[in-house]
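User: Fold this; tokens only.

Assistant: Input:
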Amino acid sequence: MTRNLVVLVALLAASGGWAQPYPVKPIRFVAPFAPGGGTDFIGRVAAHRLTEALKQQVLVENRPGAGGTLGAGIGAKAAPDGYTFTVIAGSYAVNPSLYKLAFDPVNDITPVIQFSQGPLLVVANPSLPIKSMKDLIALARTRPGGLSYATSGQGSIVHLSTELFLFMAKIKAVHVPYNGTGPAITDTMAGRTQFLFGSIAAVLPIVKQGRLRGIAVTTSKRLPALPDVPTLAESGVKGYDVTLWHGLVGPKGLPRPIVDRVNGALNEALKAKDMEEKLATDGVSAAGGTPEQFGAIIKRDIEVWRKVVKMAGVKAF
């Protein structure tokens, strides 16, 4: 069956012009990262809710590799028939500046919905003589290059988020990349590195235990779970606003009726109180919105991170 015929069949099915309405078989969500991470968690939550809404099983297929570009490429090259979608994270917007992609990250996809949003939490070792982000910035200015920060890896979104902060705050610090979030947190708690930008799910429990000090969040609004922790913008880094997100995209040419069906079902699911509670366990909140809004976020973030990569001279290992 040619690609055009696939699109026609899917369009007729979604619009009610076909004997069997969409969907008539299981749907696949490609998750470009390994099981157990944030993207996998979000993908499975979305898959479960879409299964309930469409009365058809939605299966999550983990396809990790190359910083998420392998799975994203598989999704982009799938038939636009409404049976393959890709769960993407904010790192999707970073990758075009670090890797040679086999697909166009804007023109080879169809945005469907932004599923979640949340901040990074900036944490510091409690032995550091600071109590706030303003203190950290002041200390860094007295020790140019003397402070070090940990990340989950070279070219990761937390790495670029930190580089953007350093640039905007006009300070310097040494980057210490680790192979994953766990070792980065461990060494920051041990004092081998002084601070890090971490996901809420990874660092909030440790902050509450007193083993790390939360000093700022990266979004324009404070985190309800830590109302006394200011934003970076409130801490003197005016204009800083980085939001982690997850969302769903399909291949280029996905029929609009299918996009609207999936978008509508997931927007409705995101309104449920138990959904809010479930997402909160991963440190994020519900987003929702139109495909156009999500597409605009993807385009904007690709341009933002392209500038940061160039400015900081970041290269993928």
